[in-house]
Design goal:
Strand content: 15-25%
Number of helices: 5
Low-confidence stretches: none
Structural class: alpha+beta
Distance between the termini: 34 Å
CATH architecture: 2-Layer Sandwich
Number of strands: 4
């Protein structure tokens, strides 16, 4: 792994960081030092900040640091505390690449999985009503 990621996360007050989406494996390869093609979609990165940290300055600082760590990939940074549990689940189902406290991250993931399981039937019902079919 690239120690620059750990340094950036610690400096910016990150609690947990995930790679997810279609470029997650490319992000992992970038951390391993492989040379990658930056063409194509963005690398989706989900973040939970430590308690008391999540302002625009920390988010911007982390964005810049991650762009350097994952270059040439473009980073789409998502502060996961501000999205619904189904989106959070998609992120945690990716690859956790940093956790300041792995046990705390594990507990949070269990809560997210429970919340997502509760929301999924509602989302499916809404999709069937709107589109005639459930997409999830």
């Amino acid at each position: 792994m690239d120690g620059r990621l750990d340094q950036a996360c610690l400096r910016c007050g990150v609690d947990t960081l995930y790679l997810f989406g279609s470029r997650a494996d490319d992000g992992r390869r970038a951390l391993a030092g492989e040379v990658l093609d930056g063409q194509g979609s963005d690398l989706d990165v989900g973040v939970y900040f430590s308690a008391g940290v999540s302002g625009p300055a920390e988010l911007a600082g982390l964005q810049v640091a991650l762009e350097d760590v994952f270059a040439p990939l473009r980073v789409d940074l998502v502060p996961l505390a501000f999205v619904d549990a189904l989106f959070q689940f998609r992120a945690i189902d990716g690859q956790r690449v940093f956790a300041a406290d792995p046990e705390r991250a594990d507990r949070r993931e269990l809560v997210i999985m429970r919340r997502a399981a509760e929301l999924l039937p509602l989302q499916r019902a809404i999709e069937r009503e709107r589109f005639g079919v459930a997409t999830s």
